[in-house]
Specification:
With about 120 residues, the chain is mainly β. The chain is built from no helices and eleven strands. The strands form two sheets. Strands 2, 4, 5, 6, 9, 10 and 11 form a seven-stranded mixed sheet that branches. Strands 1-3-8-7 form a four-stranded antiparallel sheet, with no helix packed on it. A hairpin with a 4-residue loop joins strand 5 and strand 6. The N and C termini lie far apart (about 40 Å). The mean pLDDT is about 95.
Length: about 120
Amino acid sequence: QVQLVESGGGLVQAGGSLKLSCVPSGIIGSINRMGWYRQAPGKERESVAVVTHGGDKVYQDSVKGRFTISRDNANNAVYLQMNNLKPEDTAVYYCNLNMRIWPYDSWGQGTQVTVSS
């Protein structure tokens, strides 16, 4: 079983910054990718930023230039530095770990990010 522990969410004013952290535990191996997703009220969950095992990074267009995803290969932690936050970034942010072995796809419990105008 894999557990993903997220931290770093909170309330911030527009233009501010937050850094999200996700640390996995359990049997970790054969990682395809790790990433951050978000879900705002009344909307579907969407991809924000993903980093592949090879280090390639893919960002949602709306966060390019503002958010940076990074990964610590020593402990498989993944981080999301969010700068110049906007009210439309308000959502619950989820960490995702995708592996080629069971349980294949794991999710964190979510952390709330609220950006006030």
